[in-house]
């Protein structure tokens, strides 16, 4: 469940973060303002508060359901956890990607405009490919943080690693041993991620 939460939230955060990063460098003032407001709000709001708001505010109070059926309660908790993790992590993806966009030489964009490319085409074909290559390592750090942040989903009833560890502690009363096992488990999950993204960063490093 932890791996599933991380993988799906990472996809959502990457898509959302890319869109918001494009808004932040857009020539349209309203788009830049909305992008900046999004990053400011979600980057400075505790993830626990976001997840609880999704569960209690949107699901229980406003009755906005993302799933129906026999496993409705568990499925809604999982999907709202995905939404909360994605919008929260998307703010960090946006800032990492915006930093990468700022490393792209101004002449690159000017060359694209001189060829008649629109802002969207310039961003998609010239700027973003170079920006992604320069921020592979920071995005790896964001993914590692997302893996660890997925434990907060237990606050709204998602049966991931932290939820399972709590149940095992109540049954076995072996807190130190169980905690050590789960700590090693998270190291096993995050260490390869750091190594792979470190290798990718060197492999696709932009020559300056």
What does this 3D model show about the protein?
- The protein has helices spanning 2-24, 29-43, 47-61, 72-103, 106-114, 119-134, 136-149, 161-172, 175-203.
- With 208 residues, it is mostly helical.
- Helices cover 79% and strands 0% of the residues.
- The mean pLDDT is 86.
- α5 (106-114) runs antiparallel to α6 (119-134).
- The chain starts with a helix and ends in a 5-residue tail after the last helix.
- It is built from nine helices and no strands.
| H/E element sequence | HHHHHHHHH
Shape: globular
Number of helices: 9
Helix content: over 70%
DSSP strand count: 0
Helix vs. strand class: mainly alpha
Cα distance spanning the termini: 41 Å
Q: From the alpha-carbon coordinates, what is the Rg to the nearest angstrom? A: 20 Å
Q: Output mean pLDDT.
A: 86
Largest sheet: none
Q: Give the uncertain stretches in residue-range form.
A: none
How much of the sequence lies in strands comes to under 5%
């Amino acid at each position: 469940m932890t791996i599933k939460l991380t993988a799906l939230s990472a996809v959502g955060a990457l898509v959302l973060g890319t869109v918001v990063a494009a808004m932040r460098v857009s020539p349209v003032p309203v788009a830049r303002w909305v992008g900046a407001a999004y990053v400011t709000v979600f980057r400075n709001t505790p993830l626990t508060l976001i997840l609880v708001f999704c569960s209690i505010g949107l699901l229980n109070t406003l009755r906005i359901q993302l799933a129906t059926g026999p496993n409705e309660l568990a499925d809604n908790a999982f999907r709202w956890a995905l939404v909360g993790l994605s919008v929260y992590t998307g703010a960090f993806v946006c800032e990492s990607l915006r930093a990468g966009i700022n490393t792209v030489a101004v002449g690159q964009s000017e060359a694209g405009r001189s060829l008649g490319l629109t802002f969207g085409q310039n961003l998609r074909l010239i700027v973003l490919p170079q920006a992604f290559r320069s921020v592979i390592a920071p995005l790896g750090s964001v993914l590692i943080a997302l893996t660890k942040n997925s434990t907060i989903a237990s606050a709204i009833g998602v049966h991931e690693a932290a939820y399972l560890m709590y149940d095992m502690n109540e049954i076995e009363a072996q807190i130190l041993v169980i905690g050590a096992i789960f700590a090693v488990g998270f190291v096993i999950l995050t260490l390869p991620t750091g190594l792979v993204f470190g290798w990718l960063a060197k492999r696709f490093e932009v020559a300056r």
